[in-house]
Amino acid sequence: MPDDQDLAGLRPTGSAQSSGLSPELLVALRAAFAGEVDRRLPRLRRLQQQPGPQVLEQALRDAHSLASSAAVVGAADVARCAARVEAGLERCLRGPAPGLPAPVAADAEQLTALLERWLHA
Fold first, then answer.
1. What residues have CB less than 8 Å from 109, skipping those under 6 apart?
2. CATH code at 88?
3. Residue 99 region, left (φ>0) first, then alpha (ψ -120 to 50), else beta?
4. Which end of the chain is more exposed for a tag (fewer CB within 10 A), N or C?
5. Is residue 102 part of a domain?
6. Is residue 33 in some structural domain?
7. Mean pLDDT across the stretch 72-78?
C-alpha cells in the first residue's frame, strides 16, 4: 500500500496532508483508492486495444472517478492526467467519428503508467 512519502508527484505533497484529515483516515482513503485503481486499471488498458464506443464510455466513467478519488488522496499528477483523459474521451464520444485520437491515447497511456506506479509504490 502507498505510504506518506512523495514519489514523483504521486504522493501527497501538502493538499491531502493539510486538509485536516486524520492520518488514519488518509490511510483508509489510500487503501480504498488502491482498490479502485485495481478495479479500473484493466478497463483503462482495454481502451488502447479496443477503442469502441462502449469501451470509450466505460473509460470516461473510470477516468472521471479516478480524477476525483486521486485528488482526495493527494495524488495530484494522477488527478490531472485522469481529468485530461476524461476531457479527451468526452470529445471523442461527441465527435463525428468514433475512435481514439493519438493525443487522447497518449494521455490514457500516461494515466495507466501513473496508476501502475501508484499501486506498486
1. 48
2. 1.20.120.160
3. left
4. N
5. yes
6. yes
7. 94
